[in-house]
Dienelactone hydrolase domain-containing protein
Amino acid sequence: MSAPNECTDACFSGEYPRKLTSRWTEGLISYQVFAMKVNRKVGTSSLRQECNRVTSTSTTGKIEQIAGVECYVASPTGDYAKDKVVLFLTDVFGIPLINNRLLADDFARNGFKTVMPDLFNGDPRVLDPPPTFDREAWMAKHRDPESWISALDSVVASLKESGVTRIGTTGYCFGAPPAFHLALNGESDVTVLAHPSRLVCPEDFEKYKAESKAPLLINSCEDDRMFPPEQQTIVDGIMGEGKFAPGYERTYWDGCTHGFAVRGDLSDPKVKAGKEGENKSNINQSAAIDWLNPGAFAASAKFFKKYL
């Protein structure tokens, strides 16, 4: 899939803490301090505030090597289906972004072993880059799918060798093309996207309809230059009203911007509703969820429970 546009407004801009100098094992500890620094820096614009809100600094998963690829792995604490895995395909900030890890932990709390592979070979988007940081060079290095296909395919093959038979993907921004890659190659069984980027509309969606058998959910929003409302309408025309037999759903969140499902400012009621709804703690507790307005996380977990 080609990538004519980059996610510049939420994924490649803003002031963030300094780059982690080690691999993720150290980063899981040190980034908690950096994440709090993010909160102190937000607020200079509504976009920056939307994209960098950190709601907690406590994670429960751990770093594991899978097929030689570093992964953040969050496992349910009780009984769960060992043959099912959710692959969490991140935005450009990758494993070090604590919000990504917190979401993986939330999926695990809802019964899904969740694996977040490093799509950047230890080189996610630099946080608070120094003056010498070459943003264009970084983007060029990671723009080509060849930069992540080998690692992703190796992780999937290893999971299947270990007994995993059904894989769901949840792709955020940069993670959308990797999610489509697996679905189009018959390697995944359910696809969930949130504010996707780097997908060509309508071509990639027409190809998905023609070649994939994985049900598709897209969590979309009002203000998203990477997947604007006009493209959302086009995709509905391709996939909706039963045109995509495996299953298609799209949520839409008024008052939210690109990145809301990961980095939304929960002090904003509209963003909180879009990100997590009334209750994200356990989707099994259906009485505690407003299913008519569940939030992107609950909608995603519900979709996995239905199809995975």
User: Anything to note?
Assistant: The chain is about 35% helix and 15% strand. Residues 13 and 48 are 9 Å apart (CA to CA). The chain has one domain: 24-307. The beta strands are 62-66, 69-74, 84-89, 113-117, 166-172, 190-194, 216-223, 248-257.
